Amino acid sequence: MSEDSKPAVLDAQKPTQNWFASWFDTPYYHILYKERNYREAQIFMDNLTHYLNLPEKAKVLDLACGKGRHAIYLNQLGFDVIGADLSENSIAEASKNSNSSLHFQVHDMREKFDNQFDAIFNLFTSFGYFENDADNLKTLIAIKESLTEHGFAVIDFMNVNQVIANLVPEETKTVDGIDFHIKRYVKDGHIFKEIAFQDQGESFHFTEKVQSLTLQDFQDMMEKAGIYLLDIFGDYKLKKFHKTESERLIMIFK
Predict the structure, then answer these.
(1) How far is CA 151 from CA 62, 69, 72, 194, in A?
(2) Which of 47, 100, 119, 186 is the most exposed, having the fewest neighbouring CB atoms within 10 Å of its CB?
(3) What confidence score (pLDDT) does residue 30 get?
(4) What's the Cα-to-Cα distance from 184 to each of 16, 135, 251, rounded to whole Å?
(5) What's the confidence (pLDDT) of residue 33?
(6) What is the pTM of this model?
(7) Backbone φ and ψ of 247, nearest 5°
(8) In whole angstroms, what is the distance from residue 173 CA to residue 35 CA?
(9) How many CB atoms lie within 10 A of CB 61?
(10) How are strands ordered across the β-sheet holding 102-106?
């Protein structure tokens, strides 16, 4: 996946119901993905906040914020930001950057917030992890109910058509002296990535897994949730979405 991002199930010997919580909480997740393009993320936030014309000191929620790279930059742009994530380790790390207008908290995206936001961002394919489709709908409803009357929400998802067409079946990435052996495949409506490696004499195996949701899938869910899809973009420069060519599926709704 061009993401090389989130989804995962923990070691096959240590099954867990919330697989996405387990992998994200390991140090190896952050090692494997340490070389993400931060400048690209900043350009995306610049373009997005300009397009939405957010007011000064707008209240912004970075939902599934990880270690907070987007939330921190949004705060630097002058917004009042909360970063929320299910991973306690990620929130603990992100919280080192907290200030009077930047806060982080552990939160399940399926649950609405008590307070409301001018903008809610769900970025870098942080959707589609749940085993139950009803949880996807529940998440969308929670986002909608956490917006102010004039607020906007954004989901930045992969373009599954482009990802599947360009899937690299096998590769090895070496990061910090660790050889990560990666296999990718499509099965049962999901894109899988198996990650195997050894460190300090111990073997590890994780399986990332994200639903291969298309634009039509999101449109169907949004209709059920009573959500209005306002605009669709295909990359971080907010260029037009093309079903087969675009790298991203960026949806703006309310």
Answers:
(1) 14, 22, 20, 38
(2) 100
(3) 80
(4) 21, 25, 26
(5) 83
(6) 0.88
(7) -80, -30
(8) 12
(9) 27
(10) 102-106, 80-85, 59-63, 117-122, 147-158, 248-253, 229-233
